[in-house]
Amino acid sequence: MKLQEIVINNFMPYKGEQIVQFPQHETQNVMLLYGDNMRGKTSFLNSIRWGFYGLAVGRHLRTIPRVNLVNIEAASVDDWSMSILLKFTHEEKSYELRRKITKKSHVSVPSIDNDFEEVIGLKVDGEVIAGDKILNQINQVSPEEISRFFLFDGELLQEYENLLLDKNAQGEKIKLHIEQALGVPSLINGRADFAVLLQESRRIQTRDANNSSELKSLATRQSDLDVKEDTAKADLKSLKEQKNDVELLVDTIDEKLKKH
Hints:
With 260 residues, the protein is of the alpha+beta class.
């Protein structure tokens, strides 16, 4: 997947519409975002994450409530709408993903997530994808389970380390996701598959060895039969020659008897 453009509207510190176009390179697809503290780096990563998955995380990897995602200045003038538009490519296809929240009509000032309505839309090569298929399409491009390692926030590195060292449920989940990102399960499964293949190959070798022994035995028997056949043919030829000699002798004796 390659990000092409993001359009941010009223997301956290980004008031109004902000458009960012990502650099494009045929082989390089890693982008670094740097700057001073409190300049919106984490919020920018969260805008991408929220656009894809409807989720933004803060310190201690806690989910940020929707009411805190809407830009404060916009909310102060009763503009509670917030949206993210992502344009990207994947496997030679163009994607356009839009996610938006607005406060519900009967809500005066939102305070909980349910005070908002969320709308999501996706186009692939200009074709609108049905709502019940959007999540599957997103996870095919970038599974949510490993997204944190593609949208990695260096400022949270210590928190990741602490979670891993604490051996709690979330730490184990992160460890699992890291292993998935590195392909560890595939390596483990591959090792098991190779063990099965090795066992099968040894079984085939044993069978072939047995077959080879049987073939050698049959070849020896065939060779013996060939020798016996050659001997029998030679004996038959000799007997035929002896028969001819005897017949010739009989004819000679008959001729002599007739003369007498």
